[in-house]
Amino acid sequence: MQTNANSSIDEQFNLSMSKSKSNPLPCPAKCNVFIAGSGGREHALAWKLKQSPRIGKLWVDPNANVGLRQLGEVCPQSLDPKNKFHFKRFLEKESIHLVVVGPETLLAAGFADEYHDPPNRLVFGPTKSASKLEWDKSWCKQVLRSAGVPMAEGRSFTQLDAALNYIKSREDPLVIKAAGLCAGKGVTVCANKEEAIAAATAALEKKSHGAAGETIVIEERLHGQEISVLALVDGKTIWMLDACQDHKQVGEGDTGPNTGGMGAYSPTPLATNEVLRMIERDVLVPTLDALRREEIDFRGVLFAGIILTHGGPKVLELNCRFGDPETQSLMARWKGDLLETLWLTASGQLDQATLSFETGTSCCVVVCADGYPAKARVGDSISGIDAAENLGATTQKVICFHAATAPGNAGTLVTSGGRVMGVTAVAADLAHSSALATQAAGQIHFEGAFFRHDIGHRVLQKTSHSPSKSAHSASEKSTH
After folding, report:
1. CATH architecture observed for domain 29-125
2. HEC states along 52-91?
3. Which end of the chain is more exposed for a tag (fewer CB within 10 A), N or C?
């Protein structure tokens, strides 16, 4: 769904974008790309970028997992902010035309600001000021409130006494969030006041989230199904991708602590065209308008975590990059040239893009290491990838996206973190893709490996209509 977010664009923004429009930057016939980031999201992006007829030389992060290393050449320079000079020299020496930023930590550090150098080099990813929507949840709340975006009501606190007094004054269930970046693990959904008090105390007094938890956001707990809505944004045009549903809790049936994501599928039948139109109108457009009033030009991915309440869709959080494991699910069905689309987004020409998704449903099941989401066991030998991918038939496919893998001795593959592999299957519908991804995940073997067997259960248990009929497809266009 492509839309033009021009409902309240000021004259200064129109002038800057008209200059960009009059001097469009063409994507090179052979475009050299560097992917910043080392996980499953980046492997999925690299896998799709590698299929582009425009791809020149693909460079990957110096800490890249084995899957990424197999697709490109490893950058010899550190991405440490203290190494800016040498990394910039690398980009210049290798004639890198496009830098694709995966992790939110690099965006928060100003990666896009530092290395975006048109016409020589573009960066796909928002600036530090634009990505503040993700790395400062307290500020994000202020922006959304000023824009009238529907969201959970809440307040920010830096002092424990004030936070505890607020919790004690509330009768409804609460959610405690660290305001900074916590890799998806900074949220505690509380069933009662005791749990809320414990979560606030852990963050503000015991520093359980470090600097990221020096400010916490206390919100009302909303009820409903959650969906992930990712949209490409070039400053003036919004293109919503097929909506996903992520599964954050570590245990079957959505139990246990939050993780970075145990699995996702796309498209979800919960995201009807009516729901997506409401999200576009009430969330995406007013948020971007609010940023423009702050003289912030957002280019990249705007990722809205949405809860579908009885009162309509409401924002749980905003992120400023591709989601993980949503990206694995999206890339498995992406049709067309991803490289060209990212280039057009970064250069302010998204209205010239053509993209769509394959029919059917993709499902990603994340295989994790023992101990995750706390301290994960590492260094264990991995096997079964070929067996998993061979389960895909003519009308189906299975792709094993590496997340936390590293080379071992004598050509072996070993675990190097908590979320090890994103086993992704594409099939006719959610029931079949979930079953196939689960079966394939069972072929991945290493000591202590575990995964959820119920990705998609919220929809499979409550509805029988087909995602291909009711879910939104990004091949449909509309003008706002």
Report:
1. 3-Layer(aba) Sandwich (3.40)
2. CCCEEEEEECCCCCHHHHHHCEECCCCCCHHHHHHHHHHH
3. C
